[in-house]
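Write out structure tokens for FadR family transcriptional regulator.
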Amino acid sequence: MANSFNSISGSKRSLHLHVAREIARAILSGELPQNSIIPGEMALCEQFGISRTALREAVKLLTSKGLLQSRPKIGTRVVEKKHWNFLDPQLIEWMEGLTDTNHFCAQFLGFRRAIEPEACALAALNATVEQRKELSLIFQKMSELDAAPELDTDAWIQVDIDFHRVIFFSTGNDFYLPFGNILTTMFENFIAHSSEEGGTCFNEHKQIYEAIMSGNADKARQISLQHLQSINHRLADEQVA
């Protein structure tokens, strides 16, 4: 890995975040293999053109995300992939452009199919009054966008993200909260690569919304699964994990 990183001493971005991103992308791409020992502090500081303080902050951040582990007399090792925190939005952001987008979106779809229908069912049972009001406002925006003569794609993507995120936040189960957060990072690319013609699936969103608002957990679960299996989310079956 000698001389593999460029100097960032003139970067306007927070130095440790910039360093963390560069090292993370080297790990995620396989340039720094799992279980390998990364270059030492002096070598990395020289390559990046930064202080030891900035480098140590970067390593600390990557350790918190499960990518690195430091041990006395051994060095800093790249942790095995099974320990990486793939639910971390920043980690997902750093992966952009490093993996096949269709494959990554297919994996994300498989993940959503496994958890989102149940999230909709739980939201139907457990959403608070305030959360139902918030979902209603979001759905109203959806209705207005869908009825417009020409679809504002960027606005739709944002309101679609908000719709599904509020559902995860309304489950009454804290373990669903991280899933709502990762939608912001993944959703725009997911929609672009999984939608056959960029449709809004408005009627399916409407049915999910009505089922949640009426407290019908079984219907909310069923419509959510149909939504994720619909033609607008079609990806090659063999790709969906």
